[in-house]
Amino acid sequence: MKKTVIALAVVLVASGGIHAQTTKKDSEPESTGSFFFGGTGGPDAFGYTYADSTNPECAFQWVDITGSNPAGHGDDTGVAVALGGAGFDFYGTLHNSLGFASNGYLTDAAGDLTDFTNDCPQPNATDPSPTLAVYWDDMDAGDSPAADGFSNYFAVCPRPGPPGLQGCNVFQWNTQHFPGDAGNPIQEMFQAILYDSYHYVLQFDLTTEAGSSSTSGGENDTATIALDYACNAAASINPPLAVCFFHPNPIPVELESVTVE
After folding, report:
1. 258 C-beta neighbours (distance < 10 Å), count
2. What whole-number distance in Å separates Cα of residue 82 and Cα of residue 153?
3. 38: Cα separation from own chain's centroid
4. Distance between CA atoms of residues 175 and 141, nearest Å
5. Cα(42)–Cα(47) distance, rounded to whole angstroms?
6. Using an 8 Å Cβ cutoff, are 139 and 177 in contact?
7. I need a surface site. Which of 34, 205, 249, 258 has the fewest CB within 10 A?
8. Handedness of CA 53, 215, 211, 202 (dihedral sign)
């Protein structure tokens, strides 16, 4: 089948230097929490549920978009990206653009794209809300020439989504942990697939720290509701891994009675 690919508009946001520093200071307190449920989880107060690729309803299928619409990611930088298709409904708010942060998260296009201190757990009032944390950690794409962020819209998604939701926006990070090193290869490869117009999938193809200092999950725009898959938990992110988040309208039959204890 012929795939139709529509390029996304990318606008650079001035949000930090390209070259890595050796030390950093943050006004936020460091996260001290840690948890990992795995398998299935939710619903949160909004109604989101999730299932990972240990379940049949969430298969891992990597969509490699390396080279597509490079974001110019550096150390603590980000860009605003216009979404293709119908946009993306996240916690009841329809987004036609998102902020694509080098530190492994998506947020409002006008939001904070420089936050290198992941919060664990979410929700947290200091988050750059809303937060779609794919692999939120202190990353640095400013040194290795192969490191960057990439984005693209597919009118027919290479990774099939729920019936009737054919298109998808894909965001991919090929990066390193801070401080970056031009002599080291890519350490982390992960992506978010946002379907028209509400379900989303996090996928992990390569990691070195396996979730020990990162957050993966979603938080609403008022920092009052969240559903995390894992945060600051050793061995919680083990590629190849997919985590599917299902918007409550609708959710798969298999997850209608899922709860978190």
Report:
1. 17
2. 10
3. 17
4. 5
5. 7
6. yes
7. 249
8. positive
Residue 225, CB-side half-sphere exposure with 13 Å CA sphere:
13
Q: Identify any residues that bridge with 137 across adjacent strands, giving them in sequence order.
A: none
The pLDDT value recorded for residue 260 is: 38
Distance CA 95, CA 102 (A): 19
Q: What is the pLDDT of residue 153?
A: 98
With beta carbons less than 8 A apart as the criterion, state whether 218 and 230 touch. no
Whole-number Å distance between alpha carbons of 251 and 123? 22
| Domain segments of the chain as ranges | 5-13+41-253
DSSP string, the chain: -PPPEEPPPEEEE--S-SS--S----SSPPP---EE--SEE---SS--EEEETTSTTS-------TTSS-----BS-EEEEEPPTT-EEETTEEESEEEEETTSEEE-TTS-----S--SSSP-TTS-SSEEEEEES-BB-SSSTT-EEEEEEESS-SS--STT---EEEEEEEE-BSSP-TTS---EEEEEEEESSS-EEEEEEE-SSTTTT-EEEEE-TTSS-EEEEEES-TT---SSEEEEEE-SSS--GGGTT----
For residue 124, give the nearest of 223, 48, 35, 33 by alpha carbon: 223
The secondary structure of 15-34 as a DSSP string is: -S-SS--S----SSPPP---
pLDDT confidence of residue 257: 43
- The C-alpha atoms of residue 78 and residue 72 are separated, in whole angstroms, by 8
